[in-house]
């Protein structure tokens, strides 16, 4: 515990904690006084902070349901900070990690984000996994003008001045995967199965529009299905997929099923005799980390689309894996796509700090656009003006060792698209945070930023 | 030039551009010869001489190119060379294990876990020890090649001595027979002795005949529930020949009728299987809650412990998942029962007669147990392997097959239930438990050690939760959150069935499962669950004591 | 369907829809009238064709061996248990079988349980306050104020049951006998027409028993009192008329002397006990 | 004396209100008057945090009212809290107007996102503050009325009631997770801009919300105190300890239970409504049964049937949570779990009981004045 504490704790926290312990031992008669001291101690930590190191906030859940996925990302950022410090830090200053635990609780994410920015005065934050947690912290980052690097694939439809999206947007994962199935596998019927939350909903809407508009797929040939989080009884749904796929046309499942629900899903597929050769499943949320906790036998041959696989055969990747295994001390530990996203995000931020010569948020925001750093798949990632990055898209086939066999890859990198071309609401929107536009939702049809004119026009239309 | 008939649509598509001539009967014979020779040569284990190695190396070299069409030709070349190692190469290539080391040697990777992989020489078959994955380059294939490889291996299997392989082959041929294959197929049907494989092959041929407009084929297809048959009949209905279309329509109608019945049966099975999971999860609770009146919120975590025991057993006995699973049944019971005793002695005995307080205290225990597993083992899910005999499904007919793992769980649930009934009805412990439940003071004065009975009852209920965990490890994730997903459902089942009534729990669990599965296709998974919950809430308001309330004076109070 | 109907059963929620309780009509004879009442639990007939009549102002003792159906009879009268067959009338106007417990209570039937149940966390004063006959609907209860008249009435009852000194102590600290008295006091606060008292002296000392006997005899005349008791000495000391229950129906009825000389009674019940009494 | 005025004559209420007022004033002064950087300055972050604790405290008071005094252990009070929160969240969503990313004048972003073309009917009216604020009380109140009516009428009490309240909040959680419901699914409602015309991103508004929560807590506390010290409160205690007896002396117990249950649900709704603008998001996880059980722990730790104990418990546990999850995230669940066990086994009267015991011992040393512990009802008494 001690080593752990030393590793993750900024020093002021200790003092704060000591104080807390002292003041919880109040007597009844001193209730009011204790309350006062407690209150003061809560607001205390910002004053004792030393000005010297550059502070890197880490906002990943270390407890609760999301700890499964997020705690390794915390370790990743800590490893990157350690590596950076070994190289002499940045601008001659050391980096210091400030770790807080939002405990998989969305309101707590907002509170912790505020703590990082307002109390600890961190220079940059790496964090979040779920969309809802990002949505929860977004107003805080905008209000307090912080920097957030968000490393997970997401539904798009967002571009904030203060957030950098290093994970895939739908056009960097879902659409290439579907194109692969169309062109290489010859799929004609589609099952879009997902967990009922915003990422699958949006992705499936985009895919539905894409399939219908671009490839003339009929309504009857698309089956959309949503299940709750952690769904474990897949019998009916798999039976439906089986029937849907037995109409004589090649069928594939595009799965945006989240986390825990996947194991029972694939098991049921295998048990009902659905083979990857008959009906392949391409998943957007199943990576090495998820595979490490399950019996991979039923999954072998199914597909996943990511921007990185641990099995990528490049030296950068092997170096990264070696460093990661050394850092965790666990020969079995795996790397995955969001880790690579943090790797890219961290290097981009470091590069921008060097370029700007300061950690000042506004300076970084300007400097980082256009920054290009190597990714782990043998190419380069560039920060686009819409705060998304360029990524290659890889399709991998699950192997029995829990790794992916890469079967297809986009010829070049794809730039992330904040606003999907396939959704009516966002078709006309673009994001560009360079001067003079500086706008996250510029409407090219009306030529204005944000909704104000759109609203006026809508009202005018109503008046007519 | 290709030598195999390529029955799969994608494979056909992949080869469409290059196929010069369709495979003919002599090619099939060639395959037959090839397969015979493969087995014969392999049996003699002759080591090929150097000249052969040079040829073989050339064959493999041809694979290590960038162009996929070139690789396809290289695969054909390997098939045509009657090298005895060809089949091993092809399957290694299919699995992505055929790789090339930096020194140019071709190797087969034996195990690709970790960073260092054990490999053997692809030509000589001698073990080369471990190689770093950095030194190796995989020979990549794409889907078209994968299908080509599978076709190549599978058509060979049609002539295999292994019955299972032949059956699988026949299955695959359904709807894929073309004119070139039709003729030799008739010969194969003649030769085939296995009824099942034979019936399949006849159907496969009939589909082809139907496509050719042969009305007699409808008779061969009538009554088959196989989706491919249905597709073929559907096509015939759409076809130009009115007579054939009418016959096909008639056959189709009877098939549809049959399918509806099968779907009904399938839904019933799904419901019973879901119900059996609910019963398993709830039945331990029916004992601790129903008989002792203890609200054990840590019940879910006891289930989780059972599941983790299964995982631990499989770790202890690597390579024998089935044995480990069977051994986990007593082990899971024991672990959960011991934990139950600890909980009873440590907390619950101090809270006698304060059910709401036990609820809070055991909830605290559940949090501790969860976190214990998270920090002690891992926050990640654990891999529990499904043994061979529990994978797959029992095929009743082409439209109805029952998944084996769920069938085993269903049977297991019934066995556990019967066992519990026996314990409660036929043993001294059961008698004492019932006595203590009804009148504690009186039972004590009769010389029954009530404390001991409490401990044993709680251990029994907890142990059964452990058994549920063992079963659930075969259906769902084994992770720290496992228990949480079942606790509310378990309480619902017990309360719905009537507290203190094991039969009630069984009936409630199974019926809730069936209701849920009937609702699901119609309302969707989430809504179905909400409807069931609301139904139970309303039901409890109407009949606060559940389906089978305890009667009599004692219950009136 | 039943569910919908029960939703329509509005008078259970809205007080103002309930007709005000009408006073008990005893002009045509008895205050409590049970006819051919039968109830069974799992096939066991706890009450079997029971007929019983209590007159206004009477003090009646009911005795009988264990399992004779004494407590079940009380449950039926107070609406806790529904009989399978028979009639139960309170006065000549109220069919008790159509009413629930609070309705029956507000008609003026008070019950003291075998095991004394008082509100242990509340003071004696508050126990009595709650029991007092008053408007027991929600808003009147919420806005109820303590008036001198109420206080006097409570003090009066506290004096009657002899617990005035303890008025501000929680009822949980009382001894067993004191709880019995407090419970009787609570019944008095309700100004009931009929008091059902279940084994009032079980576990009491000799003095406590005497005091209880005084209390109960003092009540008779103003209220009708039905006492169920095991203790023969106590019954003898207060009884005017005694009913003997056996296997759920009336075995004998009359004065204590008549009953104890009835050979049937002696045979089934008094046999052993009577000898003890004599000794 | 008027029933509402009665609490002000009680010493514990005076003390409670005094401490609360002092705390509110002190925080306000330290926040506004003391310059930033001064060690005694209370930051906006802290004010916000304290505001959250206070709304939790109000929620705990609501739970204590029915659990402490009526013996009804609701494991679904999170549902009423969340409903109040959603009512407020819907108002705040409507206040965004056309400032959403898509610039739609009426529809919230998530509806545009999911291709809805008009507001669902149940969203109408929420653009008006008065309507939304009424719904904050009405929505949870109505749910409590219907649910309680059915439950108490059939005498579902004790453990059974706890279990079905848990099922209720679980069912609601599943329902609100559904995107078709029109409440934003898993993401819930977020990205609020302003409330009653004040920007939610300004420190002054935050202070205002903190004070408003404090006032709401005071009002809720006094209301609950007035109820429990009226005759109705004594009927509640009587019901808790001996439900059958209460019925026999002529009280329609189910109506009293229903009345207090509805009041408690409305208070919980109010707490939720004050919570949402301070944390900036409302999503279905507030419906999770675990949260509801945690509320009960606050009350148990603070001390049942005291009201002020609930406040102490809520603040204590949440402060501990803030500190622990920052310092030792792994240890937090252990600590929380241990608290559940230790409090129920060793500290049945909670912190308040401990305080009261000390005070009493100091007052009359040696005098035996142990009042009986309030206990939950037996499964089948």
UniProtKB/TrEMBL annotation, chain B:
GO biological process, one term: amino acid transport
GO function term, MF aspect, one: transmembrane transporter activity
Coiled coil: none
Keywords: Amino-acid transport, Cell membrane, Membrane, Signal, Transmembrane, Transmembrane helix, Transport
Localization: Cell inner membrane
TM helices/strands, residue ranges: 268-295, 323-343, 407-424, 453-472, 492-515, 522-540
Protein topology in the membrane: Multi-pass membrane protein
Signal peptide (residue range): 1-45
One Pfam family here: BPD_transp_2
Gene Ontology cellular-component annotations: plasma membrane
Similarity remark: Belongs to the binding-protein-dependent transport system permease family. LivHM subfamily.
Protein's name in the database: Urea ABC transporter permease subunit UrtB
TrEMBL record, chain C:
Pfam families, A to Z: ABC_tran, BCA_ABC_TP_C
Record's keyword terms, sorted: ATP-binding, Nucleotide-binding, Transport
The keyword Secreted appears for this protein: no
GO terms for MF: ATP binding; ATP hydrolysis activity
Gene Ontology terms: cellular component: plasma membrane
UniProt keyword ATP-binding, yes or no: yes
Positions of the ABC transporter domain: 32-272
Superkingdom per UniProt: Bacteria
Classification via PROSITE patterns: ABC_TRANSPORTER_2
Protein name: Urea ABC transporter ATP-binding protein UrtD
Organism the protein comes from: Billgrantia montanilacus
UniProtKB/TrEMBL annotation, chain D:
Cell location: Cell inner membrane
InterPro entries associated with the record: ABC_transp_permease, ABC_transptr_urea_perm_UrtC, LivM-like
Membrane topology: Multi-pass membrane protein
Recorded GO MF terms: branched-chain amino acid transmembrane transporter activity
GO CC annotation terms, alphabetical: plasma membrane
Major location (coarse): membrane
Keyword field: Cell membrane, Membrane, Transmembrane, Transmembrane helix
TM regions (residue ranges): 12-33, 79-97, 128-152, 159-177, 207-224, 256-275, 295-319, 331-357
Cell membrane keyword on record: yes
The protein's name in its UniProt record: Urea ABC transporter permease subunit UrtC
Species, as recorded: Billgrantia montanilacus
Gene: urtC
């Amino acid at each position: 515990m001690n080593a752990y504490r030393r590793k993750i704790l900024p020093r002021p926290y200790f003092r704060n904690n000591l104080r807390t312990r002292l003041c919880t031992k109040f007597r009844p008669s001193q209730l009011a006084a204790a309350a006062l001291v407690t209150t003061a101690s809560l607001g205390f930590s910002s004053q004792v902070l030393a000005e010297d190191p550059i502070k890197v906030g880490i906002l990943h859940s270390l407890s609760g349901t999301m700890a499964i996925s997020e705690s390794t990302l915390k370790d990743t950022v800590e490893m990157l900070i350690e590596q950076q410090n070994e190289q002499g830090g940045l601008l001659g200053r050391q980096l210091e990690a400030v770790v807080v635990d939002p405990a998989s609780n969305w309101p707590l994410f907002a509170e912790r984000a505020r703590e990082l920015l307002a109390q600890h005065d961190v220079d940059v934050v790496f964090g979040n996994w779920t969309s809802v947690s990002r949505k929860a912290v977004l107003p805080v980052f905008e209000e307090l003008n912080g920097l957030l690097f968000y490393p997970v694939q997401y539904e798009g439809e967002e571009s904030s001045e203060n957030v950098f999206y290093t994970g895939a947007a739908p056009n960097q994962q879902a659409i290439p995967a579907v194109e692969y199935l169309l062109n290489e596998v010859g799929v004609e019927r589609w099952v879009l199965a997902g967990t009922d939350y915003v990422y699958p909903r949006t992705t499936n809407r985009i895919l539905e529009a894409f399939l219908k508009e671009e490839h003339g797929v009929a309504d009857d040939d698309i089956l959309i299905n949503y299940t709750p989080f952690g769904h474990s009884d897949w019998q009916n749904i798999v039976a439906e997929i089986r029937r849907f796929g037995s109409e004589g046309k090649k069928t594939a499942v595009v799965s945006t099923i989240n986390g825990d629900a996947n194991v029972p899903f694939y098991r049921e597929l295998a048990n009902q005799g659905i083979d990857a050769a008959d009906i392949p499943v391409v998943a957007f949320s199943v990576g090495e980390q998820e595979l490490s906790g399950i019996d991979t036998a039923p999954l072998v041959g199914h597909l996943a689309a990511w921007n990185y696989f641990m099995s990528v055969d490049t030296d950068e990747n092997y170096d990264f894996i070696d460093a990661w295994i050394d850092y965790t001390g666990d020969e079995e530990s795996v790397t995955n796509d969001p880790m690579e996203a943090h790797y890219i995000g961290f290097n981009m931020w470091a590069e921008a700090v060097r370029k700007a010569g300061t950690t000042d948020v506004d300076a970084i925001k300007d400097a980082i656009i256009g920054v290009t750093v190597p990714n782990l798949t043998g190419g380069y990632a560039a920060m686009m003006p819409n705060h998304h990055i360029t990524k290659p898209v890889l399709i991998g086939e699950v192997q029995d060792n829990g790794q992916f066999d890469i079967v297809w890859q986009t010829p070049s990198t794809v730039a992330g698209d904040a606003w999907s071309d396939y959704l009516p609401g966002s078709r006309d929107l673009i994001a560009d945070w360079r001067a003079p536009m500086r706008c996250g939702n510029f409407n090219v049809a009306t030529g204005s930023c944000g909704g104000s004119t759109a609203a006026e026009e809508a009202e005018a239309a109503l008046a007519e | 030039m290709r030598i195999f008939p390529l029955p799969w649509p994608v494979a056909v598509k992949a080869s469409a551009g290059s196929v010069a001539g369709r495979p003919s009967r002599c090619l099939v014979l060639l395959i037959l010869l090839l397969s015979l020779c493969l087995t014969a040569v392999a049996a003699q284990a002759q080591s090929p001489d150097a000249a052969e190695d040079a040829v073989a190396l050339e064959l493999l070299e041809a694979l290590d190119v960038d162009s996929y069409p070139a690789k396809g030709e290289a695969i054909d070349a390997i098939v045509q060379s009657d090298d005895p190692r060809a089949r091993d190469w092809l399957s290694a290539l299919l699995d992505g294990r055929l790789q090339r080391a930096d020194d140019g040697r071709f190797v087969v990777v034996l195990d690709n876990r970790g960073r260092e992989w054990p490999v053997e020489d692809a030509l000589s078959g001698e073990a080369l020890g471990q190689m770093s994955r950095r030194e190796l380059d995989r020979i990549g294939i794409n889907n078209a090649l994968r299908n080509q490889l599978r076709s190549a291996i599978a058509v060979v299997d049609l002539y295999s001595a292994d019955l299972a392989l032949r059956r699988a082959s026949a299955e695959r041929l359904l709807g894929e027979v073309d004119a070139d294959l039709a003729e030799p197929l008739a010969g194969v049907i003649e030769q085939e002795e296995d009824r099942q494989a034979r019936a399949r092959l006849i159907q496969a041929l009939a589909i082809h005949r139907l496509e050719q407009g042969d009305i007699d084929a409808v008779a061969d297809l009538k009554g088959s529930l196989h989706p491919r048959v249905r597709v073929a009949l559907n096509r015939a209905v759409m076809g130009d020949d009115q007579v054939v279309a009418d016959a096909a329509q008639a056959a189709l109608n009877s098939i549809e009728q049959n399918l509806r019945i099968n779907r009904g049966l399938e839904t019933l099975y799904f419901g019973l299987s879901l119900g059996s999971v609910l019963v398993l999860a709830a039945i331990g609770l029916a004992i601790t809650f129903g008989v002792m009146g203890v609200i054990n919120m840590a019940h879910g975590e006891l289930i989780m412990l059972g599941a983790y025991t299964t995982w631990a057993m499989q770790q202890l006995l690597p390579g024998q998942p089935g044995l480990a699973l069977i051994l986990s049944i007593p082990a899971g019971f024991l672990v959960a029962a011991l934990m139950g005793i600890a909980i009873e002695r440590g907390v619950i005995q101090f809270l006698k007669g304060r059910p709401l307080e036990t609820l809070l205290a055991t909830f605290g225990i559940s949090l501790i147990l969860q976190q214990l597993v998270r920090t002690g083992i891992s926050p990640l899910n654990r891999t529990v392997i499904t043994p061979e005999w529990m994978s797959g499904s029992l095929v009743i007919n082409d439209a109805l097959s029952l998944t084996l793992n769920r069938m085993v769980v269903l049977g297991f649930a019934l066995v556990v239930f019967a066992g519990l009934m026996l314990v409660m009805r036929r043993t001294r412990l059961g008698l004492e438990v019932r006595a203590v439940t009804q009148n504690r003071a009186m039972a004590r004065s009769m010389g029954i050690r009530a404390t001991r009975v409490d401990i044993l009852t709680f251990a029994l209920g907890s142990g059964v939760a452990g058994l549920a965990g063992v079963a659930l490890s075969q259906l769902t994730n084994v992770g720290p959150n496992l228990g949480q997903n079942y606790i509310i459902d378990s309480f619902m089942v017990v309360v719905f069935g009537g507290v203190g009534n094991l039969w009630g729990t069984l009936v409630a669990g199974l019926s809730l499962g069936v209701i849920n599965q009937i609702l699901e296709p119609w309302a969707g998974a989430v809504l179905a669950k909400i409807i069931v919950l609301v139904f139970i809430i309303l039901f409890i308001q109407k009949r606060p004591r559940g389906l089978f309330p305890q009667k009599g004076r004692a219950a009136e109070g | 369907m039943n569910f919908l109907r029960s939703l329509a059963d509005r008078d259970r929620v809205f007080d103002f829809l309930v007709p005000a309780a009408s006073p008990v009509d005893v002009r045509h004879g008895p205050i409590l009238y049970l006819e051919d009442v039968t109830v069974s639990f799992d096939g066991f007939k706890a009450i079997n064709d029971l007929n019983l009549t209590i007159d206004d102002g009477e003090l009646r003792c009911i005795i009988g061996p264990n399992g004779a159906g004494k407590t079940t009879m009380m449950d039926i009268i107070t609406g806790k248990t529904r009989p399978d067959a028979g009639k139960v009338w309170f006065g000549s106007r109220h069919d008790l079988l159509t009413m629930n417990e609070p309705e029956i209570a507000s008609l003026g039937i008070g019950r003291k349980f075998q095991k004394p149940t008082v509100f242990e966390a509340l003071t004696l004063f508050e126990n009595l306050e709650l029991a007092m006959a008053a408007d027991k609907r929600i808003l009147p209860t919420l806005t109820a104020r303590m008036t001198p008249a109420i206080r006097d009435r409570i003090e009066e009852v506290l004096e009657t049951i002899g617990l005035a000194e303890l008025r501000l102590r929680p009822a949980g600290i009382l001894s067993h006998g004191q709880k019995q008295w407090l419970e009787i006091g609570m019944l008095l606060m309700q100004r009931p027409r009929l008091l059902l008292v279940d084994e009032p002296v079980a576990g009491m000392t000799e003095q406590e028993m005497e005091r209880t006997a005084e209390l109960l005899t003092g009540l008779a005349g103003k209220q009708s009192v039905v006492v169920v008791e095991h203790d023969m000495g106590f019954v003898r000391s207060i009884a005017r008329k005694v009913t003997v229950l056996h296997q759920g129906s009336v075995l004998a009825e009359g004065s204590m002397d008549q009953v104890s000389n009835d050979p049937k009674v002696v045979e089934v019940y008094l046999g052993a006990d009577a000898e003890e009494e004599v000794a | 004396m008027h029933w509402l005025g009665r609490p002000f004559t009680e010493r514990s209420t005076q003390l409670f209100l005094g401490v609360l007022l002092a705390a509110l004033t002190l925080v306000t002064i330290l926040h506004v008057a003391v310059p930033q950087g001064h060690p005694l300055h209370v930051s906006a972050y802290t004010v916000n945090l304290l505001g959250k604790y206070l709304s939790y405290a109000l929620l705990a008071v609501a739970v204590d009212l029915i659990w402490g005094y009526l013996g009804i252990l609701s494991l679904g009070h999170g549902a009423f809290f969340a409903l109040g929160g959603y009512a407020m969240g819907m108002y705040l969503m409507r206040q965004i107007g056309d400032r959403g990313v898509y610039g739609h004048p009426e529809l919230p972003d998530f509806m545009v996102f999911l291709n809805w073309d008009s507001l669902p009917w149940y969203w109408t009216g929420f653009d008006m503050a008065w309507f939304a604020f009424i719904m904050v009380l009405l929505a949870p109140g109505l749910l409590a009325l219907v649910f309680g009516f059915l439950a108490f009428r059939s005498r579902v009490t004790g453990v059974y009631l706890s279990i079905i309240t848990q099922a209720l909040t679980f069912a609601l959680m599943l329902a609100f997770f559904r995107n078709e419901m029109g409440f934003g699914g898993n993401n819930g409602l977020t990205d609020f801009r302003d409330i009653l015309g004040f920007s939610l991103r300004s420190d002054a508004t935050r202070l205002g919300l903190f004070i408003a929560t404090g006032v709401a807590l005071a009002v809720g506390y006094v209301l609950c105190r007035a109820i429990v010290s009226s005759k109705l409160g004594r009927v509640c205690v009587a019901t808790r300890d001996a439900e059958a007896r209460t019925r026999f002396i002529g009280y329609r117990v189910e109506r009293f239970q229903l009345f207090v249950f509805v009041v408690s649900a409305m208070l919980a709704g109010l707490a939720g409504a004050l919570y949402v603008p301070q944390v900036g998001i409302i999503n279905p996880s507030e419906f999770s049964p675990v949260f509801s059980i945690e509320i009960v722990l606050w009350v148990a730790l603070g001390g049942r049937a005291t009201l002020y104990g609930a406040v102490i418990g809520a603040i204590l546990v949440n402060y501990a949570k803030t500190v622990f999850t920052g310092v030792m995230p792994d240890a937090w669940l252990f600590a929380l779990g241990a608290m559940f066990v230790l409090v129920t086994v060793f500290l049945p009267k909670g912190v308040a009981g401990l305080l009261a015991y000390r005070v009493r011992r100091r007052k009359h040393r040696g005098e035996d004045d142990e009042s009986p512990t309030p206990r939950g009802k037996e499964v089948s008494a």
